[in-house]
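Page 42, continued from yesterday. The earlier attempt failed because a stray header line got pasted into the input along with the sequence. Redoing it now with the clean sequence only.
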Amino acid sequence: MKILVTGGTGYIGSHTCIELLNSRYEVIVVDNLSNSKIEVINKIKTITNKDFKFYEMDLRSEEELRNIFSKEKIDAVIHFAGLKAVGESVQKPLLYYQNNLDSTLTLCKVMNEFKVKKLVFSSSATVYGEQKVLPIKESASLSTTNPYGSTKLFIEYILDDLYKSDNEWSIIKLRYFNPVGAHESGLIGEDPNGIPNNLMPYVSKVAIGELPYLNVFGDDYDTKDGTGVRDYIHVVDLAKGHLKALEYIDKNNDCIAINLGTGTGYSVLDIVKTYEKVNNIKVPYKITKRRDGDIAECYADSTKAKELLNWSSELSLDDMVKSAYNFIIKNKE
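This time it went through. Structure tokens are written below.
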């Protein structure tokens, strides 16, 4: 099978490309490199010892995308491309709506033209908003607390309507919880441009002295230590979930949402303390005010992934923090 991976040089996209190549899929990557680095391409090739095609382009360019579909015999698409920082989305909502919705609409239009109707979509647990009942099942009510989450939810609605209009489509909306960690080689990991928006790369930059301390956004949530609780999942486990999703859509015509998480909630301070213990290093932090759009607690019920995809997470929190530190040490320069 030949798989088009949009946003394939990004954090989750690059790890998924490795799993795809190691499982003998053909891979074509499309990315505009707005929040990733071109060096990732060679790193994926080094890790897998396999070659693949890369197109640097903005997914909203219909003509360029059509050219790729004309040249390549694509069987299915994994769609990661999109802006993803919660805080930035609150400050720049129009940018997020325009980028994330337009790119998906263009992709689906061109897929439809070329009769490529198998899609794995990178959604998010942000579509659940704030839930009173935990762990969160896929049947939970949907709402959002920030524009980033809203773009994910609106895209889910678009994909639902697309399937209703033509059930030759086969679509899985993977609702990830909080991906962390890095590939065991240390060659690729979460390496955002500029100041990180996510917890683990920020902790890592503090750990090596690149940033002076970690800002902990709020210690007055209704959680065990007052800090936000999330379901952190190792990015390699997450990547493997995409291969299981591909296998499913290859055999089934469906449009379903599936959680990918561990089912365990860890607080910000749990992460900091585990990082310090496993890596034998100090991570200074300061408590600051809550961040707009954040919620207190969020972790998954991943029963559906086990039942339908035969997938469950395997790597521990220790594995997550150890691999994140290994990556930042190897990529200091």
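Notes: The first helix runs from residue 11 to 22.
Reminder to self: strip header lines before submitting.
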